[in-house]
Amino acid sequence: MKKIKCNKPSNFIVLLFVSIVLFNCESFIEVDLPDSKLTSNIVFSDVGTAEAAMANIYSKLQNDVLVCGNSLGISILLGSYADELDTYSNGSIELQFYQNSLISTNSFVTSLWKGSFNLVYAANAVKEGLENSTTISQIDKDRLLGEVLFLRAYIHFHLLNLFGDIPYITTTDYIINTTIGKLPQTQIYTLLIDDLKKSKSIIPAVNQSQFKTRPGINTVKSLLARIYSYKKEWELAEIEASSVINSNNFEWVESLDDVFLKTSTGTIWQMPPSKNGLPTQEGQSYIFTMGPPPNRALSPSLMHAFEPGDLRQEHWIGRVEGKEDTWYYPFKYKQSTAETTSNEYSILFRLEELYLIRAEARMHLGDSDGAKKDLNKIRNRASLADTSAETEQQFIEAIIQERRIEFFSELGHRFFDLKRMGLLNNKLSPIKPGWDTTDILFPIPQSELLLNPNLLPQNEGY
To answer: Are 77 and 191 found together in one domain?
Structure first.
């Protein structure tokens, strides 16, 4: 590739650079700068090119990697892996998740690993470019650096909870990345929190993007609250959750039919479809109109978990009736075909999660009245009576139940909740014939182990 000479870099250059990062690398540990030396200080000499690089990262995250709403994303894969979805497409790679029979060469597992680490590399490239730039204003630098640090932590957080001990990639240095090894969970969490604290200190206090399509300070606090709850640091979890709830930037949505609209006042961070007028990938992936289901449907286990009179069953679940059978599908996102405008965006954080995090934190901190108040806010909207929980064990069961029903088919919450509470084996072994105790982690892709032996040993059971 010839060197490109120009007086001012164009969006074409930055898109070329990011495309090389995202699409043309054998593995995250082999990524290096292209021969044209489109180095960070050239690419990010103005805020427009830096924004273009960020937009490309968000596009991949939304459409192809990790939290996308299609069969490559964790909403579907972990819904099938746990007890939310039944898979109907025989012979599909997704079936290995449903049957809990993953192997280290599963292409979807490889896609999760490689696609996620490629985005981390791209985020690091943006970070280094911004730090080296002498022409981008400090205000723009802080805003974009805050987003990059958040994204780096957000992606590593999911990889940690899927694969266990992993590398934490903070550089684009080729030599470092080709020999990097895994870090223990405790060290990963320290690095995650450090990135998020730095992000929180520089990202704007007010989300300036329309419809909250870029992460702001409350998105950072929401992830911190989630992480502290995973680490059982309940006081810190309550502080971060309360900060978001009391920020006056969000309003409780009383109507269940309005929760997933793009204009929802309870949304903290969401991402739009690739083109205005398109539905979310979730709407396309979940909704079907004829039986038997072409790909997937809600499991009987989930359907039986709803309490009588729970309005979420009426408003958030669709049904298809056949001659002998009835099938159900997630109907949180109701648009499934192209229209004049996109009515829904894919939600990654919403206010309800912060109430349930705080309820759990307050319960562990001995504030049963506060825990009940937060839990009942969720229940009462669904037309359910106040919780009857009194003991700690009753509270734990009530929170597990409420999170299961509130977040079904969303971003693997069910799997992650059972895992962090040590309940995966207890809940899944009786209903999933293929479940083994080692299934709490995915296998590290075999192709990655061959390229970098420092990633050994393979996770137990594979």
So the answer is: yes
Q: Would you say residue 86 lies in a domain? A: yes
Note whether residue 431 is domain-resident: no
How many structural domains compose the chain? 2
List alpha helices for 135-263, DSSP H: 138-163, 174-179, 185-202, 217-230, 234-245
Q: Select from 210, 246, 213, 259 the least CA-distant residue to 381.
A: 259
Element (H, E) at 338: none
Token pair in block for residue 411: 């971003």
Phi-psi region of 448 (alpha: psi -120 to 50; beta: other; left: phi over 0): alpha
Residue 65 lies in a domain: yes
Residue 62 in any domain: the answer is: yes
Q: Indicate the SS3 state at residue 304.
A: coil
Please say whether the dihedral angle defined by the alpha carbons of residues 114, 119, 123 and 125, taken in this order, is positive or negative: positive
Residue 187: both structure tokens together: 């060290």
pLDDT in tens, 270-284: 999 999 999 999 999
In tens, the pLDDT along 68-127 reads 999 999 999 999 999 999 999 888 899 999 999 999 999 999 999 999 999 999 999 999
CA distance 95 to 102: 9
Q: Do 287 and 197 fall within a single domain? A: no
94 and 184 share a domain?
A: yes
Same domain, 184 and 299: no
H/E/C letters for each residue in 386-444? CCCCCCHHHHHHHHHHHHHHHCCCCCCHHHHHHHHCCCHHHHHCCCCCCCCHHHHCCCC
Whether this prediction's pTM lies above 0.90 is answered by yes
Determine the structural domain holding residue 28 and report its residue range: 10-203
